[in-house]
Design a protein that fits this description.
Number of helices of chain A: 7
Number of strands of chain A: 11
Strand content of chain A: 25-35%
Order of helices and strands of chain A: EHEHEHEHEHEHEEEEEH
Oligomer: homodimer
Helix content of chain A: 25-40%
Structural class of chain A: alpha/beta
Strand order of the largest sheet of chain A: 3-2-1-4-5-6
Largest sheet of chain A: 6 strands, parallel
Bound molecules: adenosine-5'-triphosphate
Distance between the termini of chain A: 46 Å
Shape of chain A: elongated
Chain lengths: 216, 216
Protein backbone atom coordinates (compact mmCIF):
# COMPACT_ATOMS: atom_id res chain seq x y z
CA UNK A 1 0.00 0.00 0.00
CA UNK A 2 1.41 3.37 -0.96
CA UNK A 3 2.68 5.78 1.65
CA UNK A 4 2.06 9.49 1.25
CA UNK A 5 3.24 12.44 3.31
CA UNK A 6 2.21 16.07 3.10
CA UNK A 7 4.44 18.77 4.60
CA UNK A 8 2.69 22.07 5.24
CA UNK A 9 -0.98 22.15 6.18
CA UNK A 10 -2.20 25.36 4.56
CA UNK A 11 -5.38 25.24 2.48
CA UNK A 12 -3.74 23.24 -0.30
CA UNK A 13 -1.92 20.78 1.95
CA UNK A 14 -4.95 20.23 4.15
CA UNK A 15 -7.34 19.71 1.22
CA UNK A 16 -4.84 17.24 -0.19
CA UNK A 17 -4.80 15.22 3.04
CA UNK A 18 -8.57 15.28 3.26
CA UNK A 19 -9.05 14.00 -0.27
CA UNK A 20 -6.47 11.24 0.11
CA UNK A 21 -8.29 10.02 3.22
CA UNK A 22 -11.62 10.28 1.40
CA UNK A 23 -10.23 8.00 -1.30
CA UNK A 24 -9.14 5.45 1.28
CA UNK A 25 -5.41 6.19 1.18
CA UNK A 26 -3.03 6.64 4.11
CA UNK A 27 -1.41 10.00 4.65
CA UNK A 28 1.03 11.47 7.15
CA UNK A 29 0.32 15.15 7.75
CA UNK A 30 3.24 17.29 8.94
CA UNK A 31 3.62 20.89 9.99
CA UNK A 32 5.89 22.93 12.23
CA UNK A 33 2.85 24.70 13.66
CA UNK A 34 1.01 22.91 16.47
CA UNK A 35 -2.30 24.58 15.74
CA UNK A 36 -2.31 23.39 12.14
CA UNK A 37 -1.39 19.86 13.16
CA UNK A 38 -4.32 19.85 15.59
CA UNK A 39 -6.72 20.91 12.82
CA UNK A 40 -5.35 18.17 10.58
CA UNK A 41 -5.68 15.39 13.18
CA UNK A 42 -8.98 14.06 11.84
CA UNK A 43 -8.00 14.62 8.20
CA UNK A 44 -4.99 12.30 8.07
CA UNK A 45 -3.90 8.85 9.29
CA UNK A 46 -1.30 10.58 11.46
CA UNK A 47 -0.53 14.24 12.09
CA UNK A 48 2.83 15.17 13.58
CA UNK A 49 4.46 18.45 14.59
CA UNK A 50 7.83 18.58 12.85
CA UNK A 51 10.32 20.91 11.25
CA UNK A 52 10.74 19.03 7.98
CA UNK A 53 13.60 21.18 6.71
CA UNK A 54 15.91 19.27 9.05
CA UNK A 55 17.80 16.14 7.93
CA UNK A 56 17.39 14.61 11.38
CA UNK A 57 13.63 14.99 11.18
CA UNK A 58 13.44 13.48 7.70
CA UNK A 59 15.59 10.54 8.84
CA UNK A 60 13.60 10.04 12.04
CA UNK A 61 10.28 10.06 10.20
CA UNK A 62 11.78 7.89 7.41
CA UNK A 63 10.27 10.25 4.82
CA UNK A 64 12.75 8.94 2.25
CA UNK A 65 10.80 5.67 2.26
CA UNK A 66 7.52 7.30 1.26
CA UNK A 67 6.18 6.87 -2.26
CA UNK A 68 5.25 10.51 -2.70
CA UNK A 69 6.03 13.44 -0.41
CA UNK A 70 4.32 16.74 -1.15
CA UNK A 71 5.96 19.93 0.07
CA UNK A 72 3.12 22.38 0.51
CA UNK A 73 4.99 25.11 2.36
CA UNK A 74 3.65 28.25 0.79
CA UNK A 75 5.09 31.63 1.64
CA UNK A 76 8.49 30.66 3.00
CA UNK A 77 10.37 29.97 -0.23
CA UNK A 78 13.69 29.29 1.51
CA UNK A 79 12.19 26.64 3.76
CA UNK A 80 10.36 25.08 0.83
CA UNK A 81 13.61 24.84 -1.13
CA UNK A 82 15.60 23.53 1.82
CA UNK A 83 12.97 20.89 2.63
CA UNK A 84 12.89 19.75 -1.01
CA UNK A 85 16.68 19.53 -1.13
CA UNK A 86 16.88 17.53 2.09
CA UNK A 87 14.22 15.09 0.88
CA UNK A 88 15.88 14.49 -2.49
CA UNK A 89 19.40 14.29 -1.02
CA UNK A 90 18.17 11.62 1.39
CA UNK A 91 16.81 9.56 -1.48
CA UNK A 92 13.08 10.30 -1.43
CA UNK A 93 11.80 8.85 -4.68
CA UNK A 94 9.11 11.36 -5.59
CA UNK A 95 8.80 14.89 -4.26
CA UNK A 96 6.11 17.28 -5.50
CA UNK A 97 6.36 20.89 -4.49
CA UNK A 98 3.98 23.85 -4.47
CA UNK A 99 5.80 26.79 -6.05
CA UNK A 100 5.12 30.39 -5.14
CA UNK A 101 6.29 31.86 -8.46
CA UNK A 102 8.31 31.07 -11.57
CA UNK A 103 11.72 31.66 -9.95
CA UNK A 104 10.80 29.42 -7.06
CA UNK A 105 9.70 26.78 -9.59
CA UNK A 106 12.97 27.06 -11.54
CA UNK A 107 15.05 26.54 -8.43
CA UNK A 108 12.91 23.61 -7.35
CA UNK A 109 13.37 21.84 -10.67
CA UNK A 110 17.11 22.39 -10.48
CA UNK A 111 17.32 20.80 -7.05
CA UNK A 112 15.32 17.77 -8.12
CA UNK A 113 11.63 18.40 -7.51
CA UNK A 114 9.71 15.84 -9.55
CA UNK A 115 6.62 17.97 -10.09
CA UNK A 116 5.79 21.60 -9.51
CA UNK A 117 2.30 22.63 -8.50
CA UNK A 118 0.87 26.13 -9.04
CA UNK A 119 -2.71 26.15 -7.76
CA UNK A 120 -3.36 29.86 -8.23
CA UNK A 121 -1.97 29.97 -11.76
CA UNK A 122 -3.76 26.80 -12.85
CA UNK A 123 -7.04 28.06 -11.47
CA UNK A 124 -6.64 31.46 -13.11
CA UNK A 125 -6.38 29.69 -16.43
CA UNK A 126 -9.37 27.41 -15.84
CA UNK A 127 -11.57 30.24 -14.56
CA UNK A 128 -10.68 32.35 -17.59
CA UNK A 129 -12.01 29.58 -19.83
CA UNK A 130 -15.31 29.31 -17.98
CA UNK A 131 -15.74 33.10 -18.22
CA UNK A 132 -15.51 32.94 -21.99
CA UNK A 133 -18.39 30.54 -22.54
CA UNK A 134 -20.68 30.50 -19.61
CA UNK A 135 -22.69 27.48 -20.70
CA UNK A 136 -19.80 25.23 -21.45
CA UNK A 137 -16.76 24.55 -19.33
CA UNK A 138 -15.17 22.22 -21.82
CA UNK A 139 -16.00 20.55 -25.15
CA UNK A 140 -14.03 17.70 -26.66
CA UNK A 141 -14.71 16.04 -29.99
CA UNK A 142 -14.08 12.32 -29.67
CA UNK A 143 -14.07 11.34 -33.30
CA UNK A 144 -16.56 8.82 -34.77
CA UNK A 145 -19.21 11.55 -34.45
CA UNK A 146 -19.08 11.50 -30.66
CA UNK A 147 -18.26 14.27 -28.20
CA UNK A 148 -18.09 15.04 -24.50
CA UNK A 149 -18.91 18.36 -22.91
CA UNK A 150 -18.98 19.89 -19.47
CA UNK A 151 -22.15 21.93 -19.23
CA UNK A 152 -22.39 24.61 -16.56
CA UNK A 153 -25.67 25.08 -14.74
CA UNK A 154 -26.67 28.73 -14.62
CA UNK A 155 -29.84 30.30 -13.28
CA UNK A 156 -32.10 28.76 -15.91
CA UNK A 157 -31.95 25.16 -14.71
CA UNK A 158 -31.34 25.82 -11.05
CA UNK A 159 -33.54 23.57 -8.92
CA UNK A 160 -34.39 21.10 -11.69
CA UNK A 161 -33.59 17.43 -11.29
CA UNK A 162 -30.69 16.30 -13.46
CA UNK A 163 -33.08 14.10 -15.49
CA UNK A 164 -35.18 17.21 -16.27
CA UNK A 165 -32.22 18.99 -17.87
CA UNK A 166 -32.34 19.20 -21.70
CA UNK A 167 -29.08 17.23 -21.94
CA UNK A 168 -30.67 14.34 -20.06
CA UNK A 169 -33.59 14.10 -22.47
CA UNK A 170 -32.04 12.46 -25.50
CA UNK A 171 -31.29 8.78 -25.90
CA UNK A 172 -28.32 9.92 -28.02
CA UNK A 173 -26.72 11.53 -24.96
CA UNK A 174 -25.64 10.24 -21.60
CA UNK A 175 -24.96 12.12 -18.35
CA UNK A 176 -21.75 10.45 -17.19
CA UNK A 177 -21.17 12.43 -14.02
CA UNK A 178 -21.71 15.81 -12.45
CA UNK A 179 -19.33 18.02 -10.56
CA UNK A 180 -20.33 20.11 -7.61
CA UNK A 181 -17.56 22.37 -6.37
CA UNK A 182 -14.48 20.20 -6.61
CA UNK A 183 -16.21 16.81 -6.18
CA UNK A 184 -17.09 14.56 -9.11
CA UNK A 185 -20.13 12.30 -8.71
CA UNK A 186 -19.68 9.28 -10.97
CA UNK A 187 -22.74 7.14 -11.73
CA UNK A 188 -24.85 10.15 -10.81
CA UNK A 189 -28.18 9.96 -9.05
CA UNK A 190 -30.36 11.61 -11.71
CA UNK A 191 -32.97 12.75 -9.17
CA UNK A 192 -30.45 15.18 -7.67
CA UNK A 193 -31.55 18.80 -7.72
CA UNK A 194 -29.21 21.13 -9.65
CA UNK A 195 -27.43 24.09 -8.09
CA UNK A 196 -25.76 27.09 -9.73
CA UNK A 197 -22.23 26.23 -10.78
CA UNK A 198 -22.91 22.50 -11.02
CA UNK A 199 -21.29 20.96 -14.07
CA UNK A 200 -22.88 18.10 -15.99
CA UNK A 201 -20.47 15.85 -17.89
CA UNK A 202 -22.41 14.82 -20.98
CA UNK A 203 -21.31 12.54 -23.82
CA UNK A 204 -22.90 11.25 -26.97
CA UNK A 205 -23.56 12.19 -30.59
CA UNK A 206 -21.70 15.40 -31.34
CA UNK A 207 -24.44 17.07 -33.39
CA UNK A 208 -27.12 16.34 -30.79
CA UNK A 209 -24.85 17.63 -28.01
CA UNK A 210 -24.01 20.83 -29.90
CA UNK A 211 -27.70 21.49 -30.57
CA UNK A 212 -28.70 20.94 -26.94
CA UNK A 213 -25.96 23.32 -25.80
CA UNK A 214 -26.96 25.95 -28.36
CA UNK A 215 -30.51 25.93 -26.96
CA UNK A 216 -29.47 26.20 -23.31
CA UNK B 1 -18.37 41.68 -26.99
CA UNK B 2 -18.18 40.76 -23.34
CA UNK B 3 -16.46 43.00 -20.82
CA UNK B 4 -14.42 41.45 -18.04
CA UNK B 5 -12.65 43.04 -15.10
CA UNK B 6 -10.26 41.47 -12.60
CA UNK B 7 -9.63 43.17 -9.25
CA UNK B 8 -6.47 42.04 -7.49
CA UNK B 9 -3.43 41.03 -9.50
CA UNK B 10 -1.87 38.30 -7.34
CA UNK B 11 -0.91 35.02 -9.01
CA UNK B 12 -4.50 33.98 -9.58
CA UNK B 13 -5.74 37.36 -10.83
CA UNK B 14 -2.76 37.84 -13.10
CA UNK B 15 -2.97 34.33 -14.60
CA UNK B 16 -6.67 34.97 -15.20
CA UNK B 17 -5.94 38.19 -17.12
CA UNK B 18 -3.22 36.51 -19.14
CA UNK B 19 -5.43 33.62 -20.20
CA UNK B 20 -8.36 35.89 -21.13
CA UNK B 21 -6.04 37.88 -23.38
CA UNK B 22 -4.63 34.67 -24.82
CA UNK B 23 -8.15 33.63 -25.76
CA UNK B 24 -8.77 36.95 -27.50
CA UNK B 25 -10.98 38.53 -24.86
CA UNK B 26 -10.80 42.04 -23.42
CA UNK B 27 -9.96 42.46 -19.77
CA UNK B 28 -9.53 45.40 -17.41
CA UNK B 29 -6.90 44.67 -14.75
CA UNK B 30 -7.20 46.58 -11.48
CA UNK B 31 -5.10 46.78 -8.35
CA UNK B 32 -4.44 49.27 -5.58
CA UNK B 33 -0.72 48.55 -5.87
CA UNK B 34 1.17 50.43 -8.58
CA UNK B 35 3.86 47.78 -8.93
CA UNK B 36 1.32 45.07 -9.65
CA UNK B 37 -0.50 47.21 -12.19
CA UNK B 38 2.82 47.82 -13.96
CA UNK B 39 3.46 44.06 -14.16
CA UNK B 40 -0.03 43.53 -15.55
CA UNK B 41 0.23 46.21 -18.25
CA UNK B 42 1.10 43.78 -21.04
CA UNK B 43 -1.27 41.09 -19.76
CA UNK B 44 -4.53 43.01 -20.05
CA UNK B 45 -6.31 45.41 -22.44
CA UNK B 46 -6.04 48.09 -19.76
CA UNK B 47 -4.43 48.12 -16.34
CA UNK B 48 -5.45 50.77 -13.83
CA UNK B 49 -4.39 51.63 -10.29
CA UNK B 50 -7.56 51.79 -8.21
CA UNK B 51 -8.97 51.10 -4.78
CA UNK B 52 -11.95 49.04 -5.86
CA UNK B 53 -13.53 48.87 -2.42
CA UNK B 54 -14.78 52.41 -2.94
CA UNK B 55 -18.21 53.17 -4.44
CA UNK B 56 -16.81 56.23 -6.20
CA UNK B 57 -14.19 54.11 -7.93
CA UNK B 58 -16.68 51.47 -9.02
CA UNK B 59 -18.98 54.19 -10.39
CA UNK B 60 -16.15 56.02 -12.13
CA UNK B 61 -14.88 52.83 -13.79
CA UNK B 62 -18.47 51.76 -14.57
CA UNK B 63 -17.69 48.28 -13.21
CA UNK B 64 -21.41 47.68 -12.75
CA UNK B 65 -21.71 47.51 -16.55
CA UNK B 66 -19.20 44.66 -16.89
CA UNK B 67 -20.41 41.16 -17.71
CA UNK B 68 -18.21 39.46 -15.13
CA UNK B 69 -16.07 41.05 -12.44
CA UNK B 70 -13.67 38.78 -10.57
CA UNK B 71 -12.56 39.84 -7.10
CA UNK B 72 -9.15 38.24 -6.62
CA UNK B 73 -8.09 40.06 -3.48
CA UNK B 74 -6.47 37.31 -1.45
CA UNK B 75 -5.33 37.93 2.07
CA UNK B 76 -7.38 40.95 3.02
CA UNK B 77 -10.75 39.36 3.72
CA UNK B 78 -12.39 42.60 4.81
CA UNK B 79 -11.48 44.39 1.61
CA UNK B 80 -12.57 41.41 -0.47
CA UNK B 81 -15.97 41.43 1.26
CA UNK B 82 -16.38 45.20 1.01
CA UNK B 83 -15.46 45.21 -2.69
CA UNK B 84 -17.94 42.40 -3.39
CA UNK B 85 -20.68 44.22 -1.50
CA UNK B 86 -20.07 47.49 -3.32
CA UNK B 87 -20.13 45.76 -6.72
CA UNK B 88 -23.37 43.90 -6.03
CA UNK B 89 -25.08 46.91 -4.41
CA UNK B 90 -24.27 48.97 -7.50
CA UNK B 91 -25.91 46.37 -9.73
CA UNK B 92 -22.96 44.41 -11.14
CA UNK B 93 -24.56 41.41 -12.80
CA UNK B 94 -21.99 38.72 -12.10
CA UNK B 95 -19.32 38.85 -9.41
CA UNK B 96 -16.98 35.90 -8.79
CA UNK B 97 -14.81 36.00 -5.71
CA UNK B 98 -11.72 34.13 -4.54
CA UNK B 99 -12.35 33.01 -0.98
CA UNK B 100 -9.63 32.57 1.62
CA UNK B 101 -11.50 30.02 3.73
CA UNK B 102 -14.95 28.60 4.43
CA UNK B 103 -16.09 31.49 6.64
CA UNK B 104 -15.02 33.98 4.04
CA UNK B 105 -16.93 31.95 1.43
CA UNK B 106 -20.08 31.88 3.60
CA UNK B 107 -20.07 35.63 4.05
CA UNK B 108 -19.48 36.18 0.36
CA UNK B 109 -22.47 34.05 -0.61
CA UNK B 110 -24.65 35.90 1.87
CA UNK B 111 -23.71 39.26 0.39
CA UNK B 112 -24.43 38.10 -3.14
CA UNK B 113 -21.28 36.66 -4.69
CA UNK B 114 -22.34 34.62 -7.72
CA UNK B 115 -19.49 32.14 -7.56
CA UNK B 116 -16.79 31.35 -5.05
CA UNK B 117 -13.36 30.22 -6.17
CA UNK B 118 -10.95 28.25 -3.97
CA UNK B 119 -7.82 27.54 -6.01
CA UNK B 120 -5.80 25.93 -3.23
CA UNK B 121 -8.61 23.65 -2.11
CA UNK B 122 -9.55 22.60 -5.64
CA UNK B 123 -5.95 21.85 -6.49
CA UNK B 124 -5.44 19.85 -3.29
CA UNK B 125 -8.28 17.63 -4.36
CA UNK B 126 -7.07 17.17 -7.93
CA UNK B 127 -3.48 16.50 -6.87
CA UNK B 128 -4.69 13.88 -4.37
CA UNK B 129 -6.34 12.03 -7.23
CA UNK B 130 -3.24 12.01 -9.40
CA UNK B 131 -1.21 10.69 -6.44
CA UNK B 132 -3.49 7.69 -6.19
CA UNK B 133 -2.93 6.41 -9.71
CA UNK B 134 0.20 7.78 -11.22
CA UNK B 135 -0.48 6.62 -14.75
CA UNK B 136 -3.97 7.96 -14.99
CA UNK B 137 -5.19 11.40 -14.09
CA UNK B 138 -8.79 10.66 -14.95
CA UNK B 139 -10.86 7.86 -16.47
CA UNK B 140 -14.45 8.25 -17.61
CA UNK B 141 -16.63 5.53 -19.05
CA UNK B 142 -18.74 6.98 -21.86
CA UNK B 143 -21.21 4.19 -22.33
CA UNK B 144 -21.59 2.28 -25.64
CA UNK B 145 -18.27 0.59 -24.86
CA UNK B 146 -16.32 3.85 -25.18
CA UNK B 147 -14.16 5.66 -22.65
CA UNK B 148 -11.88 8.63 -22.26
CA UNK B 149 -8.80 8.79 -20.09
CA UNK B 150 -6.11 11.27 -19.18
CA UNK B 151 -2.82 9.42 -19.24
CA UNK B 152 0.16 10.92 -17.40
CA UNK B 153 3.60 10.70 -18.98
CA UNK B 154 6.17 9.42 -16.51
CA UNK B 155 9.82 8.59 -17.07
CA UNK B 156 9.15 5.64 -19.36
CA UNK B 157 7.86 7.57 -22.38
CA UNK B 158 9.78 10.77 -21.82
CA UNK B 159 11.25 11.99 -25.09
CA UNK B 160 9.09 9.81 -27.36
CA UNK B 161 6.92 11.42 -30.01
CA UNK B 162 3.22 11.32 -29.17
CA UNK B 163 2.63 8.95 -32.09
CA UNK B 164 5.17 6.53 -30.61
CA UNK B 165 3.22 6.24 -27.36
CA UNK B 166 1.33 2.94 -26.88
CA UNK B 167 -1.99 4.81 -26.69
CA UNK B 168 -1.37 6.27 -30.15
CA UNK B 169 -0.82 2.87 -31.72
CA UNK B 170 -4.31 1.49 -31.96
CA UNK B 171 -6.90 2.40 -34.57
CA UNK B 172 -9.48 1.83 -31.82
CA UNK B 173 -8.10 4.82 -29.88
CA UNK B 174 -7.64 8.45 -30.68
CA UNK B 175 -5.40 11.07 -29.03
CA UNK B 176 -7.77 14.02 -28.75
CA UNK B 177 -5.45 16.48 -27.09
CA UNK B 178 -2.53 16.74 -24.74
CA UNK B 179 -1.98 18.97 -21.76
CA UNK B 180 1.35 20.46 -20.84
CA UNK B 181 1.29 22.34 -17.57
CA UNK B 182 -1.99 24.18 -17.67
CA UNK B 183 -2.32 24.48 -21.47
CA UNK B 184 -4.45 22.13 -23.55
CA UNK B 185 -3.34 21.46 -27.13
CA UNK B 186 -6.38 20.50 -29.19
CA UNK B 187 -5.82 18.86 -32.57
CA UNK B 188 -2.39 17.87 -31.33
CA UNK B 189 0.72 17.74 -33.47
CA UNK B 190 1.59 14.05 -33.05
CA UNK B 191 5.28 14.61 -33.76
CA UNK B 192 5.62 16.52 -30.50
CA UNK B 193 8.17 15.09 -28.10
CA UNK B 194 6.73 14.10 -24.69
CA UNK B 195 7.87 15.60 -21.40
CA UNK B 196 7.38 14.36 -17.84
CA UNK B 197 4.01 15.44 -16.51
CA UNK B 198 2.43 15.77 -19.95
CA UNK B 199 -1.07 14.40 -20.06
CA UNK B 200 -2.50 12.66 -23.12
CA UNK B 201 -6.28 12.78 -23.50
CA UNK B 202 -7.18 9.48 -25.14
CA UNK B 203 -10.61 8.21 -26.17
CA UNK B 204 -11.89 5.09 -27.82
CA UNK B 205 -12.94 1.53 -27.07
CA UNK B 206 -12.98 1.05 -23.31
CA UNK B 207 -11.39 -2.41 -23.24
CA UNK B 208 -8.56 -1.39 -25.56
CA UNK B 209 -7.92 1.74 -23.48
CA UNK B 210 -7.88 -0.16 -20.20
CA UNK B 211 -5.45 -2.70 -21.61
CA UNK B 212 -3.09 -0.05 -22.98
CA UNK B 213 -3.10 1.69 -19.58
CA UNK B 214 -2.47 -1.55 -17.74
CA UNK B 215 0.65 -2.13 -19.82
CA UNK B 216 2.07 1.36 -19.34
N1 LIG C 1 9.97 23.80 8.29
C1 LIG C 1 8.67 23.51 8.20
N2 LIG C 1 8.25 22.24 8.42
C2 LIG C 1 6.95 21.91 8.34
N3 LIG C 1 5.97 22.78 8.03
C3 LIG C 1 6.33 24.06 7.77
C4 LIG C 1 7.68 24.49 7.86
N4 LIG C 1 7.73 25.82 7.55
C5 LIG C 1 6.46 26.21 7.30
N5 LIG C 1 5.62 25.17 7.44
C6 LIG C 1 4.15 25.17 7.29
O1 LIG C 1 3.75 25.28 5.94
C7 LIG C 1 2.35 25.60 5.99
C8 LIG C 1 1.87 26.26 4.71
O2 LIG C 1 2.48 27.46 4.52
P1 LIG C 1 1.65 28.79 4.22
O3 LIG C 1 0.43 28.85 5.03
O4 LIG C 1 2.64 29.90 4.22
O5 LIG C 1 1.30 28.52 2.75
P2 LIG C 1 0.15 29.07 1.87
O6 LIG C 1 0.70 29.22 0.49
O7 LIG C 1 -0.52 30.23 2.49
O8 LIG C 1 -0.80 27.85 1.93
P3 LIG C 1 -2.09 27.65 1.09
O9 LIG C 1 -2.04 28.60 -0.07
O10 LIG C 1 -2.01 26.22 0.75
O11 LIG C 1 -3.20 27.98 2.04
C9 LIG C 1 2.17 26.43 7.26
O12 LIG C 1 1.16 25.81 8.02
C10 LIG C 1 3.52 26.37 7.94
O13 LIG C 1 3.41 26.19 9.34
N1 LIG D 1 -8.91 47.76 -2.34
C1 LIG D 1 -8.22 47.10 -3.29
N2 LIG D 1 -8.44 47.40 -4.58
C2 LIG D 1 -7.76 46.75 -5.55
N3 LIG D 1 -6.84 45.80 -5.34
C3 LIG D 1 -6.58 45.47 -4.05
C4 LIG D 1 -7.25 46.09 -2.98
N4 LIG D 1 -6.77 45.54 -1.83
C5 LIG D 1 -5.85 44.63 -2.16
N5 LIG D 1 -5.73 44.57 -3.50
C6 LIG D 1 -4.82 43.74 -4.27
O1 LIG D 1 -5.21 42.38 -4.29
C7 LIG D 1 -4.08 41.67 -4.77
C8 LIG D 1 -4.12 40.21 -4.38
O2 LIG D 1 -4.04 40.05 -3.04
P1 LIG D 1 -2.99 39.09 -2.34
O3 LIG D 1 -1.69 39.16 -3.03
O4 LIG D 1 -3.10 39.30 -0.89
O5 LIG D 1 -3.67 37.73 -2.66
P2 LIG D 1 -3.09 36.30 -2.76
O6 LIG D 1 -4.15 35.39 -2.23
O7 LIG D 1 -1.72 36.20 -2.20
O8 LIG D 1 -3.03 36.18 -4.29
P3 LIG D 1 -2.71 34.91 -5.10
O9 LIG D 1 -2.91 33.74 -4.18
O10 LIG D 1 -3.66 35.00 -6.22
O11 LIG D 1 -1.29 35.07 -5.50
C9 LIG D 1 -2.86 42.44 -4.29
O12 LIG D 1 -2.07 42.73 -5.40
C10 LIG D 1 -3.43 43.69 -3.67
O13 LIG D 1 -2.69 44.84 -3.97
Amino acid sequence: KKQFAVIGLGRFGLALCEELMEQGAQVLALDIDEQRVKLAADKASHAIIADCSSEDTVAELKLDEYDIVVVAIGDDINTSILTTLVLKEMGTKTVWVKAKNKFHAKILYKIGADRIISPERDMGIRIARSMLDRRVFDFLALGSGLAIAEVVIGGKHLGERIDEHPCAKSNKLKILAYKRGATIYDQPDLSVSLEIGDILIVAGEEEVLKEKIRLL
